[in-house]
Amino acid sequence: MSLGIENLPFEELPEVSYRHRLEITGKVSRSLVEEISRVKKEPEWMRNLRLRALEFFEKARIPQWIPFIEKIDLDEITSLYVKPDVEKAEKWEDLPEEIRRIYEKLKLPESYAKYLAGLTSVLDSESVFIGVKDYLRKLGVVMIPMEEAVVKYPDLVREYFSRVFPYTDHKFAALHYALWSGGVLVYVPRNVKVAYPVEAFFFVGREMEGQFEHSLIVADEGSEIVFIEGCAAPRLMRESFHDGMVEIYAHKASKVSFITVQNWSRNIVNFNNKRAIAEEGATVDWVEGSIGSKFTVTYPSTILRGEGSNTTSTVMSISRGGVVKDTGSKVIHAAPRTTSRVTSKSIVADGGVSIYRGLVQVNKGAKGSASYVECESLILDEKSQSHTYPIVHLLDDDANVGHEASTVKLDEDQVFYLTSRGLRRNEAVSLIIHGFIRDVLKKLPFEFAVMMTRVLDAEFGEYGGVG
């Protein structure tokens, strides 16, 4: 199965320009939240959920363990809802030319035509494109923008929305639920196995803007689906803020693979809230390539609630030029004979900072469970930093948990050896980088491995290619 992600471009996009129909600005307040709900014509229960989240947000403290938290001023993010001046389209040619050019640069029309069963794109705060192929419709799969799902599938949304990742989890989760807009609902019926991936793409087009999309994936018993999440933004003069949410509910014996290609520009502060619940025999696989942004916090998390459920989390991050990546994964083993494997690889250079922050918890009664965590960092110069904060909570003696962590600097002896064999220095360093990530790439789908190789080519061009 081809995912198509090997064709995505990874250079920064130039500044873009398009018209906006509506913009709600100001500080986070009850009146602002109510105005967003009014504009979206939401039912009372959703409006009340927003207001409860706002109340929690106002009382909750900002997490002080986030390394760059003192540099974030939410009052500077003044555009909290931005609606582009476009009607949602089901054909690319129906989009305004200036918006269509953005997506053509990102090769989304090509990917949709060749590889995807469904695609939705969120521009700023609203969905502007939704494409669902007949193949997906005939299977009975629901793929619909989240704001429409609230109205058309109220029972389904009320059952699962905020069930996996509640707004009480932390301050930025509460902020998300108060301001959320855009995103997608995907429901896969019982025993339906979707052979082609679906994708949601999120684009922030302006500075001093907040994006708060919400993606909800419900895989019914025995179903399977691959979901790709793409993120991008053009070069901006000032910061914008991304506070997205992903909730996955994997029912008995289902399988959900969630792949993120994060290519934010260097002016985006990125909070990515991701969590899954896996019932009996279910599988949830997370794959994340964290490429851009100024600051990133992301911890794909899974609660293994059903016996025999399992999860994998593979995160690769690149931090350069003062970029801070606080990444990792969390796994809660809440049932017997559950398994997890977490792999984290980070490359830091030019004063970048990489932080691995992970949690594995085996609850009482989760007998026969097993987990293995491996996190490695490669530091390419003296200005860069890497930190590791692994946490393991074993509340049941009948469990097998292993953890391995290492931080290595670029070995000049290796560089000297390779250059003595005829390689130029940039080629030698490139070969070392490739060797560092090879074991991770072997675990990934072929297209994702090709994509990550292209990312490293773009990011470390002065060192030479890595493929």
TrEMBL record:
Residues 140-198 form the SUF system FeS cluster assembly SufBD N-terminal domain. Coiled coil: none annotated. Residues 206-436 form the SUF system FeS cluster assembly SufBD core domain. Signal peptide: none annotated. GO terms for biological process: iron-sulfur cluster assembly. It comes from the Archaea. Belongs to the iron-sulfur cluster assembly SufBD family. This is Fe-S cluster assembly protein SufB. It comes from Thermogladius calderae. The gene is sufB.
